[in-house]
Amino acid sequence: MSDHESAAEAYRRKMAWRRTPEENMRLFVQLQRQAFEVLEASPEAMDHFIRRNHRKRRQSEVDKLLRRHGITHPSPSP
Fold first, then answer.
1. What is the pLDDT of residue 73?
2. Does residue 1 register a pLDDT over 60?
3. Please, are residues 68 and 32 in contact by the beta-carbon 8 Å criterion?
4. C-alpha 12: how far from chain center
5. Distance set, CA 4 to CA 7, 11, 18, 63 (Å)
6. Widest pairwise Cα distance in the chain
7. Contact yes or no for 19/27 (Cβ under 8 A)
8. Cα(75)–Cα(47) distance, integer angstroms
9. CA 34/CA 45 separation, integer angstroms
10. CB contact at 8 A, 54 and 48
11. Cβ contacts of 61 within 8 Å, gap of 6 or more
12. How far is Cα 21 from Cα 18, in angstroms, rounded to an integer?
């Protein structure tokens, strides 16, 4: 790791420590929303996400997550 990368990482860590729990939650929600917007823009990415999560989670949890974000469940891939 270069000195520049170390300084950048130290700065990000310092800024993270300064955030309040409420700011952390707002940032988390914003990042989640952006991630789902990216997934919704790419059917291939959404399909990969769904298949990965089916392996990692119970189906009911995946469905709950999709409903929370207003996403209709894609048809199963062959």
1. 63
2. no
3. no
4. 19
5. 5, 11, 21, 43
6. 48
7. yes
8. 9
9. 14
10. no
11. 53
12. 10
What distance in Å separates the CA atoms of residue 65 and residue 59, rounded to the nearest whole number?
A: 10
Using the structure block, give the residue that is written with the tokens 């989640």: 32
Which residues contact residue 51 at a Cβ distance below 8 angstroms, ignoring those fewer than 6 apart?
77
pLDDT of residue 63: 80
The DSSP line for 19-52 is S-HHHHHHHHHHHHHHHHHHHHH-HHHHHHHHHH
Which tens digits make up the pLDDT trace of 25-69?
A: 999 999 999 998 998 899 899 888 888 877 777 777 778 878 888
Helix (H, G, I), strand (E, B) or coil at 73: coil
Helices 21-41 and 43-56, interaxial angle, to 10°? 120
